[in-house]
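W.,

You were right to be curious about this one. When I first looked at the sequence I had no strong expectations either way, so I just let the prediction run and decided to look at it fresh. Below is the sequence, 310 residues in total, followed by the output.
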Amino acid sequence: MSNIKRLLLLPHLKVHNANALSSPFTIGFPAMTAWLGAVHALQRKLNAHGFDSAKLIGAAVINHQCDLQTHKGVGDFVHSIIGTANPLDKTGARSAFIEEARCHLDVSLVVEYTGIDKEDEVQIQEKIAHLLNSYMKIAGGDIIAFKQPEFFKVELNNSSDLKRLTCKLMPGYALIERRDLMIEAMEQGQDAMDALLDHLSIHHHCEQDKEGNVTWHSQRQSAGWIVPIATGFQGLTDLGTAKNQRDPEVPHRFAESVVTLGEFKMPHKINAIDEILWRYQTDLSRHLYLCAQNNSVPQTEEEIENAYYA
């Protein structure tokens, strides 16, 4: 295995109206499947434009700003989603309202790649800029601005290479997986949903000194900016066919979202680039199609394709 990570930085992608309904019961930052899906779509477009050997094999997501589109009126207790009722039905009337949470984002992507030669880098940069400017979407949102893509090489155990990259990502927060918190809680006998909620709940307590002064303290069960994140899907049915399925050539199965815990962590606190890189990972024995971190043996594109379509 090479000691050098070849990385492509897509800095400050400004995305308008991205899908913030990341799972059936979480609203906020888009699901990780949306980000890896966008990176995979970019690879396919590069391959279709003559860069056949280019492979985008992992991605890190750094959030600079997330503006969830909600409204809280005077006297309201909770925020409401700002939604639209479109398209209009055939009579011109407003259709039934289906909640469609949206957010505006400023995000940087760090993409690990193979198959791109040094002499092709300028052409790749130009082609990516063209693709981002034309018809690509990310998490269902429109890309309205971005900065020039850059190539980096980060040698493992070389702190100066890593620092040069992370400086480009500040200020921002890298999304990392904290499945370990869920595993620890469930090994102690907790239900998955209880474990999730316990780590997201804010606990308040007070202390009274000898003079009678009361001081309130608020804290969570674990340190850090812990959030719920959607990281993939679990199949509910066997592979087969379904009426009106999108692609009749690909086996179909019903699935549900996989939700776990994640953490937003400032890039200057990471010690290795693998701490923030996400990759596809499948487990057919449990019908799991996931985005995961810290894979000991990253799956090849052929293995992933066979898992999804075989």
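Here's what jumped out at me. The chain has six helices and 17 strands. And, maybe more interesting for your project: The longest helix spans residues 32-48.

Coffee later to discuss?

I.
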